[in-house]
Write a structure and sequence with these properties.
- By secondary structure, this protein is an alpha+beta fold.
- Helix content is 25%, strand content 41%.
- Strands 1, 2, 3, 4, 5, 6, 7, 8, 9 and 10 form a ten-stranded mixed sheet that branches.
- A hairpin with a 3-residue loop joins strand 1 and strand 2.
Length: 262
Amino acid sequence: MKDVQNERDHRNIAINKVGIKGLRYPITVLDKNNGEQHTVAMINMYVDLPHESKGTHMSRFVELLHMLAPKLSLKIFADILEQMKSHLNAESAHIEVTFPFFIEKKAPVTGAPGLMDYTCRLIGSINSKCRIDLVSEVNVPISSICPCSREISDFGAHNQRGEVCLSTRFKKFIWIEDMIELAENAASCDVYSVLKRADEKFVTEKGFSNPKFVEDIVRDIALVLGEDANITWFSVSVENFESIHNHNAYAYITGGKKPDGA
């Protein structure tokens, strides 16, 4: 049968990324407490396309993924990137895997259990020199109390939920749970899925005794990451979904060194 993708293109324009987006696929990820966790990921896969090629073979992306039946580890991630680059005759390959990760979290006073879900993402690429770059990302819901409001108000202070987005490059494997814990520890207080009245009292008082701006939260996280010899690069952002303003508050810090060619 005629292979149109292999025909020559005469416009002489290379494409940086071509591939598939939004593929839902079951995966297994490492779980610090339970060994493994089954979840469903949203996967994007791309390769570059040289100027003379008309198209890539889209079906090969899915075939590769299915053939490798991935348990999501750093080694498997590297294997998939190398296979993509080889099977699709590409100079570079990229993969993004986004998935919900669940942790059982007990209420701080009553110990009532509940599941918290965190959106996580692994981003990988391989370049023409076969250099692999991996980034791990977590999005963590938090709560914060405004220090200014706390200081100037006779009664209470305004509070809001927020989200920490933490991305890291590292020398050795880093647990998702450790990244989540770092983000939660920097907030005014954690967010929980189940709270009884005694727990609500606790988190309210904890937050009001620990007011923080978004600037405080990103700096506290950056301070810890900057002192960690295992972290080669990081970015951290905090966005507060403001309760009394018609806008959100935002802060962002990046540090460390990106690898060559990243």
